[in-house]
């Protein structure tokens, strides 16, 4: 019925205690006991591969000492309750699906190209600063840009000239 920590049962193979595999392990499912965590441990890294019916690698998750790497067509992080997609990434797009994106670095957020959003605001009692130190700052929208300072001053500064332009109305 088995050897040592390895037992053959009607449902498959039951492995009790700590065991070492020297070569790759191929299984359909791995479960821990209901009251115990499943621990996979390695001196270097732990890699989980997914393959298609032809044996070709379709996805890989590697947990190493310095990084966790995922190689796949699409990577998703979902909320534990409700399964809402909080983060997803594929070759064409990265989506952050949380209700709120908060950047906590002292330098703020730096974007290499354009940013499209319906709403930008600072934390309560914090200043909002939009800055482009070496280039121009452009805000445009097909139906207009609305800037509102409900509890303070609105200040626009520049080194050379400040242009406010209306093509069909007044400034």
From TrEMBL:
Keywords: Cell membrane, Cytoplasm, Cytoskeleton, Disulfide bond, Glycoprotein, Membrane, Signal-anchor, Transmembrane, Transmembrane helix
GO CC term, one of those recorded: sarcolemma
Gene (name only): Sgcz
One of the protein's GO biological processes: heart contraction
Domain of life: Eukaryota
InterPro entries linked: Sarcoglycan, Sarcoglycan_gamma/delta/zeta
Protein name in the entry: SGCZ protein
Entry similarity comment: Belongs to the sarcoglycan beta/delta/gamma/zeta family.
Localization, UniProt: Cell membrane, Sarcolemma; Cytoplasm, Cytoskeleton
Membrane topology: Single-pass type II membrane protein
Source species of the chain: Phaetusa simplex (large-billed tern)
Subcellular location, principal: membrane
């Amino acid at each position: 019925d088995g050897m040592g920590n390895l037992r053959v049962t009607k449902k498959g193979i039951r492995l009790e205690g700590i065991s070492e595999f020297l070569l790759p392990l191929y299984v359909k499912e791995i479960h821990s006991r209901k009251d115990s965590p499943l621990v996979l441990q390695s001196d270097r890294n732990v890699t989980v591969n997914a393959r298609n019916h032809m044996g070709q690698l379709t996805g890989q998750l590697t947990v190493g000492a310095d990084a966790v790497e995922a190689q796949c067509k699409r990577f998703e992080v979902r909320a534990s309750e409700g399964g809402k997609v909080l983060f997803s990434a594929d070759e064409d797009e990265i989506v952050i699906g949380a209700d709120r994106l908060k950047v906590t670095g002292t330098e703020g957020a730096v974007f290499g190209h354009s940013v499209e959003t319906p709403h930008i605001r600072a934390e309560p009692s914090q200043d909002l600063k939009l800055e482009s130190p070496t280039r121009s700052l452009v805000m445009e929208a097909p139906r207009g840009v609305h800037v509102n300072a409900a509890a303070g001053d609105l200040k626009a500064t520049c080194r050379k000239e400040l242009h406010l332009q209306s093509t069909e109305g007044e400034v």
